[in-house]
Write a structure and sequence with these properties.
single chain, 417 residues, FAD/NAD(P)-binding domain, 7-stranded mixed sheet, 6-stranded antiparallel sheet, binds flavin-adenine dinucleotide
Length: 417
């Protein structure tokens, strides 16, 4: 019999187990695979982008109802469910999560964008300090143990089933990333899962020859816009989301951080409008093209764009503008070039698959959980944290931050309520 059983030893489950153990509980951390925290090692390309300094509001400390409203709004650009996360992040913002990791022994660093990493820039360092804490706080770890069902007991507490064997606990914390349905917890409502933060498929033909090219770009996601004469159409009413960042061309898809963030809002049939010169305003770009025309008036189209764009992008931009790379540049075609550079449109033909995506949208319906304690309203004594709740954020450390913060709240609540 344990005080608390945590199901799933990923980022949020490990945090929950440590928090519950720190409040004096006898804790068992159950993991179906052969190692704990495996996904942590893959995060941030092996460097673990563990938090973001933007999750840092002056109003995060001592929130009153009005301040909670403002905090939720300041998080609205980041999380899909800002009002729910505000309660947790008001207790565990960037500064407190970093301080917590420092206490566990991890030194961290933050880049100019506010993305936080271990000072070693090595994800193993994060997992190592968590492992040490698990040992120090006497947490029992059961590996290769998949919980198949959870049954509430008549006299309080739960039985977590591993096949025919039962693990008994007063409290359960669910931290399985994917929200699972259990026959004993039939009142738990699950929002269907959708993979996000992954590449978007576009017609291979339109980006032929660009596989591997990386460039900075503004990606504007719009509804519709597929009509052949729509290049110059107003986009304003159809704008869904816009992001500036790295764009990575693949054989039949687009990738990179900007695309990953766009994928949170994308649907098949929507249009990506790519601006390859995001650092310039429309007028500045036209001024630049005029200036280049003065210097390079005897150049071919190809030569005119050389040095301005990745070489392999030039052919695609000119093809999109309907211009021949070997023709000589003329004043009349500057407008076409400007349009192709700033409004290169590609229809979305496919969304990220589960295997490609970094995060899954969907999970346990947050409305049925108390946002301050992460306790289920349907099953008192049952808590959930991390990605298995219907919470997701953009790239930049937001998802791991949610995992650490929600894990701490769920574990502490399970240990003290
Ligand atoms: C390639 C990649 C890179 C990423 N990079 C970043 C990044 O740099 N920054 C960032 O903020 N986010 C990043 N993310 C997202 C981030 O890793 C997740 O949001 C976070 O790990 C979710 O934590 P979690 O505890 O909810 O789930 P997980 O870390 O997935 O842990 C869930 C655990 O539960 C176990 N489990 C599942 N079912 C059962 C069961 N029935 N019984 C027992 N155990 C079970 C699983 O085996 C797993 O170990 C990345 C994700 C990926 C895939």
């Amino acid at each position: 019999m344990y005080d608390v059983v945590v199901v799933g030893a990923g980022a949020s489950g490990i945090m929950a187990a440590i928090a519950a153990a720190r409040s004096g509980c006898n804790v068992c951390l159950v993991e179906k695979s052969s190692r704990i925290g495996q996904k942590i090692l893959a995060t941030g390309n092996g460097r673990c982008n563990l938090s973001n300094s933007a999750i840092n509001s002056a109003i995060c400390a001592g929130v009153c109802e009005d301040e909670k409203y403002y905090l939720a709004h300041s998080l609205a650009d980041a999380y899909n469910n800002p009002a729910f996360v505000a309660d947790v992040l008001s207790k565990y913002d960037y500064a407190s999560i970093i301080a917590y990791f420092n206490e566990l022994g991890l030194l961290t660093t933050c880049d100019l964008r506010g993305w936080a990493y271990p000072k070693t820039r090595w994800a193993n360092s994060v997992l190592d300090v968590l492992r040490n804490a698990i040992t120090r706080f006497g947490i029992t770890v059961m590996l290769k143990t998949a919980i198949t069902d959870i049954i509430p007991c008549n006299n309080g507490g739960f039985s977590a089933l591993v096949g025919n064997t039962a693990l008994n606990a007063n409290k359960i914390v669910l931290a399985t990333c994917k929200a699972q349905s259990y026959s004993g917890l039939s009142r738990l409502k699950i929002m269907s899962a959708q993979p996000i933060l992954g590449p978007l498929q576009v017609p291979a033909q339109a980006i032929r020859g660009l596989d591997g090219v990386r460039t900075d770009a503004q990606i504007l996601l719009i509804r519709g816009g597929s009509e052949t004469n729509s290049k110059a159409n107003s986009k304003a009413n159809n704008e869904v989301f816009s992001e500036v960042g790295e764009l990575h061309f693949r054989k039949d898809s687009l990738s990179g951080i900007a695309i990953f963030n766009v994928s949170r809002y994308a649907q098949t049939g929507m249009m990506l409008c790519i601006n390859l010169m995001p650092e310039l305003t429309y007028d500045e770009l036209n001024e630049l093209l005029q200036k280049r025309f003065r210097y390079l008036s005897d150049a071919t189209m190809q030569e005119f764009l050389t040095g301005m764009l990745h070489t392999r992008l030039i052919a695609s931009v000119l093809a999109y503008a309907g211009l021949n790379p070997d023709d000589y540049i003329s004043k009349q075609c500057l407008q076409q070039i400007s349009m192709a550079l700033t409004n290169f449109r590609l229809p979305i033909t496919g969304l990220p698959t589960f295997a490609q995506a970094q995060v899954t949208r969907g999970g346990y319906l947050t409305q049925r959980f108390n946002s301050a304690t992460l306790q289920s309203q349907d099953y008192p004594g049952l808590f959930a944290c991390g990605e298995c709740l219907d919470i997701d954020g953009p790239c930049g450390g937001y998802n791991l931050h949610w995992a650490w913060a929600s894990g701490t709240v769920a574990g502490m609540s399970a240990g003290t309520l």
